[in-house]
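Quick review question:
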């Protein structure tokens, strides 16, 4: 089950009020958003792996309330598919899954060289399980039942550690990104470019995947998720792409968003 983050009458930039968020890469590129400014951790993406329906719903509500993007999986197979395709800032992982073992998922994650943060959730409060999970590469281990405030603090701690290991300044062509300040500019950060939420979502997704062509369907699903309507969503997508091109050109960005006939879009450095 995939859900977009909702607040009362507001949606952060990756989704509109009717959508679910789907198929996102980690949004570590930030912008100075001109409207509906959003807090820092809104940009963080979680994968919630939990098979117990009531707890899964509570975790999803928690993620929405705290301003996280998230995907949800109820089993080993669906979680493995998402982990193989996408990057997450933190994976909240239940060990006991109906079609597999969370430890196996954790082992596969790190065998593939993935750097997603992982917090294990388990009803088993045994030292052996904790040592096994941490030994396989998990960042933390939280025993059920737990307080959501504690889970949130541990997620944020993992994300801070991950960001501390990354460069403070990120470059793509002559675009400059400052993650800590959520700024993006041309050449420098003196005059940041202003984007709406959806414009920034598309730009970050295109840049994160600049080595390949992204289909129109994948871009639409990235914004609207499972509720994507082909006609309306594609019309809105075209509008957002046009606005992105205009703003980047006006700012002097040496990038080009190309329309690959009958396939989709790709951003390239000029």
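Suggested answer, residue by residue:
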């Amino acid at each position: 089950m995939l859900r977009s983050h909702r607040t009362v009458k507001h949606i952060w930039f990756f989704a509109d009020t009717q959508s679910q968020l789907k198929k996102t890469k980690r949004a570590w590129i930030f912008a100075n958003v001109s409207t509906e400014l959003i807090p820092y951790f809104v940009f963080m993406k979680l994968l919630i792996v939990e098979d117990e329906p009531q707890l899964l719903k509570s975790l999803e509500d928690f993620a929405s309330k705290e301003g996280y993007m998230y995907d949800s999986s109820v089993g080993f197979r669906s979680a493995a598919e998402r982990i193989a395709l996408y990057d997450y800032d933190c994976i909240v992982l239940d060990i006991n899954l109906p079609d597999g073992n969370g430890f196996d998922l954790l082992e596969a994650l790190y065998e593939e060289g993935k750097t997603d943060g992982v917090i294990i959730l388990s009803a088993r409060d045994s030292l052996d399980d904790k040592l096994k999970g941490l030994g396989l590469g998990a960042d933390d281990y939280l025993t059920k039942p737990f307080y959501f405030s504690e889970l949130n603090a541990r997620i944020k701690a993992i994300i801070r550690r991950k960001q501390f290991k990354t460069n403070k300044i990120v470059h793509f062509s002559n675009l400059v990104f400052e993650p800590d300040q959520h700024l993006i500019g041309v050449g420098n950060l003196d005059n940041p470019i202003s984007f709406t939420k959806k414009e920034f979502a598309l730009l970050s997704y295109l840049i994160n995947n600049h080595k390949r062509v992204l289909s129109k369907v994948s871009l639409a699903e990235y914004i609207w998720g499972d509720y994507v309507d082909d006609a309306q969503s594609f019309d809105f997508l075209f509008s957002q792409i046009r606005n992105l091109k205009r703003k980047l050109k006006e700012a002097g960005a040496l990038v080009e968003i190309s329309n690959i006939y009958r396939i989709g879009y790709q951003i390239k450095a000029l």
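Why it works: The longest strand covers residues 117-122. The mean pLDDT is 76.
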